[in-house]
């Protein structure tokens, strides 16, 4: 089997699964590498996009009669362009608050403070969702200490807004 076809099948299959079944493969709690970091360009989304379109371009180039270096160049240029565009688009959407990395599903959940937030510095909280403990960055207007109960009020820029929780419904 041709390497380009294998890349198309694996990358395309993963891309199709992420589109059909949902895709939440970013770091838990919205923790992402800084924009200037090289690692910020290598999210699972961008790597899968690269593999799918690298394979597609290489396969099409082979069908068009290109061989060797021409086929490789076409596959690399296409894969890198699509992977970079995917990374850029999701980073842009994340900075605008349009992609919350699944943190929005935490709104209304309760949890515990692991690292208390301070003015100008987020803390860290643990929230249980579907039997799994999610750790996330959080900020709060309430004075909180490690071990305090919290409720998630919302999400801004991938950081949870939390408040002190006394365990009572309002």
Features:
five-stranded mixed barrel; 2 domains; alpha+beta; 3 helices; 170 residues; OB fold (Dihydrolipoamide Acetyltransferase, E2P)
Structure notes:
The protein has 170 residues and is an alpha+beta fold. It folds into 2 domains: 3-95, no CATH class; 103-164, Nucleic acid-binding proteins (OB fold (Dihydrolipoamide Acetyltransferase, E2P)), CATH 2.40.50. 39% of the residues lie in helices and 21% in strands. It contains 3 helices and 5 strands, in the order H-H-H-E-E-E-E-E. The chain has helices spanning 3-21, 44-63, 68-95; strands at residues 110-115, 123-129, 132-140, 149-156, 159-164. Strand 1 and strand 2 form a beta hairpin. The protein is elongated, with a radius of gyration of 21 Å. The chain starts with a helix and ends in a 6-residue tail after the last strand. The model is unreliable at 23-33 (pLDDT under 50).
- Strands across the major sheet, in which order? 1-2-3-5-4
The value of Rg in angstroms is 21 Å
Number of domains: 2
The string of secondary-structure elements, in order, is HHHEEEEE
How can the largest sheet be summarized? 5 strands, mixed, barrel
Report the count of strand segments: 5
* Percentage of β-strand residues: 15-25%
The rounded distance between the terminal residues' Cα atoms is 62 Å
- Tally of helical runs: 3
Query: Looking at the structure, what is the overall shape?
Result: elongated
Mean of pLDDT: 81
Low-confidence stretches: 23-33
Helicity level, as a percent range?
25-40%
The secondary structure category is alpha+beta
């Amino acid at each position: 089997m041709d390497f380009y076809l294998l890349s198309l099948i694996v990358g395309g299959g993963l891309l199709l699964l992420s589109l059909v079944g949902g895709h939440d493969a970013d770091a838990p709690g919205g923790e992402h590498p800084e924009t200037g970091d090289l690692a910020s360009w290598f999210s699972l989304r961008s790597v899968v996009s690269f593999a799918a379109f690298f394979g597609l371009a290489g396969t099409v180039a082979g069908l068009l009669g290109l061989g060797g270096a021409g086929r490789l160049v076409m596959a690399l240029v296409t894969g890198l362009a699509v992977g970079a565009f995917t990374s850029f688009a999701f980073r842009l959407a994340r900075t605008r608050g349009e992609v919350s990395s699944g943190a929005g599903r935490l709104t209304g959940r309760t949890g515990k403070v692991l690292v208390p937030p301070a003015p100008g510095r987020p803390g860290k909280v643990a929230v249980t969702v579907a039997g799994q403990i999610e750790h996330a960055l959080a900020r709060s207007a309430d004075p909180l200490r490690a071990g305090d109960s919290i409720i998630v009020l919302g999400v801004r820029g991938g950081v949870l807004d939390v408040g002190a929780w006394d365990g009572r419904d309002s």
